[in-house]
Amino acid sequence: MPELPEVETVRRGLAPTLVGAHILRVDLRRKDLRFPFPKDFAARLLGRQIIALRRRAKYLIAEMSDGSALIAHLGMSGSFRLEGRADENGVFNYPRSKNPAHDHVVIHLDRGILVYNDPRRFGFLDLATTDDPAPPPFLAKLGVEPLSNEFGAETLAMLVAGRKTSIKAALLDQSLIAGLGNIYVCEALHRAGIAPNRPASEFAGRTGAPTKETTRLAGSIRDVLEEAILAGGSSLRDHRQADGSLGYFQHHFRVYDRGGEPCPRAGCKGIIGKMTQNGRTTFFCPKCQK
Fold this sequence. Notes:
Elements: H1 4-18, E1 23-28, H2 41-45, E2 50-56, E3 59-64, E4 68-73, E5 79-83, E6 85-86, E7 92-93, E8 103-109, E9 112-117, E10 124-129, H3 137-140, H4 153-160, H5 167-172, H6 182-192, H7 212-230, E11 273-277, E12 280-284
Antiparallel strand pairs: 1-8, 2-3, 3-4, 4-10, 5-9, 6-7, 8-9, 11-12
Helix pairs in contact: 1-7, 4-7, 6-7
């Protein structure tokens, strides 16, 4: 499933074309994805102008001129691609598409075509009102954004204080920190030199203040996310950038999916191991992660 860096990469790729564009037509090629489309989905988008494209956790939110918002979750295999988009020379580009049998939603804009492709159909598209005091349930309980000004060592310590779960499980809890997934939590914990099965409560001091390890971990989380975004995310199975190209952060993994290989930390002679935590495979170095 795409994590925060992959979704942010898609947002940045789509924004230059989508923001300011008007929706001319919407073609739905099936009745549902993971969930049924909202009633009158296509009609409610017709004629609207997209005025902003933002990300919340792993969701894309296109804000419309009438106060509504198109919300997209990519699920396991969902992707957006742009077709008929003019480049800086006025030449229209038609990138090679994925299997058109999985092109489930086609949105015709006044500056190109936006296609949603999803072979497994675990993603979904929804509509909401941006000024609704009660946001959609899947957005209502999301925690702090790890790349926002709100997030830091103090916030992390406050979130994990008193929690009996492991630090890895706490970092994956979307109600605490929004957008982190298995890949980047494994990577951040290795960078910080922290064992993934340590109790989360250890990262808040007796007064609730952050420990030195908490400060190091908060910095590692931000660093690994920012580096992954610059690399276009990680393409392990289905992720593609908006122009169809692959992300390449997977070539910089230190531990994820590297079980049995030597630890890349300078001076460490450990071998990357793996274990199952809360149904997810954790990759870590048993020697340098304490």
